[in-house]
């Protein structure tokens, strides 16, 4: 999908950071990342890295926007679970067990089982019709649904990169460094 005009983000509710339209962000690059509450990879990789990018590079030239979406496990991937996660770090049992299964509990879990990384960037809730994929995720991923999924939108509103694990790519960090003028640091 490179160089296609980015569809507007049409979430049903902004849970953190206030509402925004992509058209209002022209002149800035936007890292848009999709995640689900019951997606271990989202909590082991995408959310920590996109939060790092937000804190390190976010500002005048780059905006990070998370979209909590759903296309499966509708009883767990809910707005309430997303709100609980943002408010207190509460995770689903499946994600907790997966983090432990990968031996990553010291890195990602507090002693009480809550997520150890505070997510501070803008987060929208992308609700879809009952038992149907979320609207914004559907607009960006017509062919197949997967989370995590990330898109880099340029300052003219065009999708220039998209991949399930875009933010984990070292080359991507060098590109963000060039865009923002902030040196790459992997410490």
Commentary on this structure:
This protein is an alpha/beta fold and 187 residues long. The protein has a single domain, classed as Glutaredoxin, CATH 3.40.30. 31% of the residues lie in helices and 19% in strands. The chain contains six helices and seven strands; from the N terminus they run βββαβαααβαββα. The protein has helices at 40-57, 79-88, 93-101, 105-108, 135-140, 170-180; strands spanning 4-5, 13-16, 29-35, 62-68, 122-125, 149-153, 158-163. The chain has a seven-stranded mixed beta sheet. The protein is globular, with a radius of gyration of 16 Å.
Keywords:
19% strand, 7 strands, 31% helix, Glutaredoxin, alpha/beta, 187 residues, seven-stranded mixed beta sheet, globular
Radius of gyration based on Cα positions: 16 Å
Tell me about the largest β-sheet: 7 strands, mixed
How does CATH name the architecture?
3-Layer(aba) Sandwich
Beta content comes to 15-25%
Q: Which class of secondary structure composition applies to the elements?
A: alpha/beta
Given as residue ranges, the uncertain stretches (5+ residues, pLDDT < 50) are none
Counting structural domains, the number is 1
What value does the average pLDDT take?
88
Helix content: 25-40%
Give the oligomer, counting copies of the same chain as homo and different chains as hetero. single chain
Strands in their spatial order, largest beta sheet: 1-7-6-3-4-5-2
Task: Give me the count of strands.
Answer: 7
CATH topology: Glutaredoxin
Output the helix-strand order. EEEHEHHHEHEEH
Shape: globular
Number of helices: 6
Which CATH C-level class is it? Alpha Beta
CATH superfamily: Glutaredoxin
The termini sit apart by: 32 Å
